[in-house]
Amino acid sequence: MPLQATSGAASQDAFGGNGVAVVPNYIEDVFSTFLYTGTGATQTITNNIDLSTKGGLTWIKGRSGATGHRLTDTARGVTKSLESNSTAAEVTESTGLTAFGTTGFTIGADADYNTSAATYASWTFRKQPNFFDVQTFTGNGTAKTISHNLGSAPACIFVKRLNSATGGEWYVFHRSLASPHNKYLWLNSSDAVANYDNLWGPNGYLPTATEFKVGEPNNLSGATYVAYLFAHDAGGFGLTGTDNVISCGSFTPDGSGNATINLGFEPQWLLMKNSTSSNDWFLFDTMRSFSLTSQRFLFANRTDSEGNFSNLFAPTATGFTVNAVWANLPTIYIAIRRGPMKVPTTGTSVYNAIARTGTGAVAQITGVGFPPDFVHSQERGGNAFSSLFDKLRGTGKHLYTQATTAELTRTTTLTSFNMDGITVGADADNNIINFTSLTYINNFFRRAPSFMDVVCFTGTGSATTFSHNLQAVPELMLVRRRSTGNDWAVYANNDNTDYLVLNTTAATADDNTYWNDTSPTSSVFSVGTNNAVNASASTYVAYLFATCSGVSKVGSYTGTGTTKQIDCGFTAGARFVLTKRTDSTGDWYFWDSTRGIVAGNDPYLLLNNLAAEVTNTDYIDTYSAGFEISSTAPAAINANGGTYIFLAIA
């Protein structure tokens, strides 16, 4: 995915204080969750992680079957496999992971990697200072010091014997276990934390930025070992090199089992375990579903197929929450930041539209070009409401853009978010996304810095702010109460005193209870006391958009009643356009190049109206720098002196 490595003043972003060029690091370059379906034949997984030249680890687990975990790293070499759920020695699997590449890895037909029609999850960790490292060593039976290249003190270490099952437990060091640091857990076991003197060196010793120590029993004389090292809040990422991408911490839920964990970032991957009780190692990631409503998990210490929690954990813009789980039990975790961190440079990397006809049967919609986070589905014949889905709220959760109805859950609509699209169900009673023979336009969006973000929050009833990860000032915000019916509230045109309503034609109105007369910033947005944006204990979702150079433009224009070109800074024209008149009543029109933004007629639909698609009008035209408003457009689009807002995507 083309993404840019600079923003703002490039001379400051790309050069350090000594004038030496800085090469920014991003989480999407060093970590990937990639889901795939087995074929029973050799296949290459392209996750854009360079293990061939950089080194690292690939961890694979079957989701649909009870298979062992498979861990293969570049230090030991291809076909060399370990199981996190077992004390077994390293084995050679000639048809397992057979090659590390510069953009992924190749697997053979081994059943634990690639059974035909079975589903799998893979997690790839590239070696990178302040993130992850792999080291191998030979035990000496006494204290041993091992050098590493993590560039910061390891916060969590997995050590595994390779050449025998004797002493083959996966010993785990974690910075949060009680001092002196002679405590350990076993990754292959549900056992509680235990103590062994000098296991990690002399009592009280802590790993450093250059070395760690081992004693017995994870250092038997003549035995060979591998060690996986994880950093903690060590910076080293982002444009300035100060962003954290991995945290190794702990929390203790209150007496009701609730906790709020502040990581300083939104996580995409979590490994956690109760450290003081017999409990399994739970592994979550956002690709399989780590949403507000569904948390699919695998056990790192067991072969079980994938399980699912409901409403027990949830990601936030700054961490995650725990709800009614493990009361008063200390829990350790490793958390990895959600990506992408790079600012996109092409619209096709973050937006696509697909026109299709419903089948009334389970189907995969592919060809999106990226893993979507946000989906808009609208039936083109006027037979169903326009619906919004997003990965953060969870599959089947949708909101109508034309109505005030509370959030609905329909399990036969959008059933999963995939690597290159979505899966839809039979949708037999809803018409929302896949009803037999109905025609749809599906708009797909990816969350990305400076382009768009999704935030879910719970209202407080008092004027407040909520964090977001747009990393730019939001210029368009669509906010909707989920738990109860309400109008949509829209912030636009850098106007913190006024609001618009997505589900009506109403002009802009002044009300300080919406945005508290406070403009959003690159890290937070403000809400007042209006029920549409901040009723106490009500749940909300906010979709945030910004202008991203060459990718998207949030702006405004004044109508002329004649042909008018809107310069968005694009080079090949807009592929999506949304407009709304603000000084008077007017519908929310949208067009896309999939249905046709051409020199002739351009089909449009309305976000606020159930009306069928209109195909015989020529209200907008192509323009390489953006889009063109036609002289034939009505007052709702181009009245002389009228004011309008728009969102355009290249």
How does this structure look, described?
- This protein is mainly beta and 650 residues long.
- The chain folds into 5 domains: 38-126, no CATH class; 132-230, Immunoglobulin-like; 343-445; 452-545, no CATH class; 552-649, no CATH class.
- Helices cover 4% and strands 38% of the residues.
- Strands 11-18-13-14-15-16 form a 6-stranded antiparallel β-sheet, with no helix packed on it.
- The chain is elongated, with a radius of gyration of 26 Å.
- The two termini are 15 Å apart.
Strand content: 35-45%
What's the helical proportion of residues?
A: under 10%
Backbone CA Rg: 26 Å
* Largest sheet composition: 6 strands, antiparallel
- Count helical runs: 6
Write out the strand line-up for the largest beta sheet, numbering strands in chain order: 11-18-13-14-15-16
- The overall strand count is 53
Tell me the span between the first and last alpha carbons. 15 Å
What is the overall pLDDT average? 95
Shape: elongated
Q: What's the number of structural domains?
A: 5
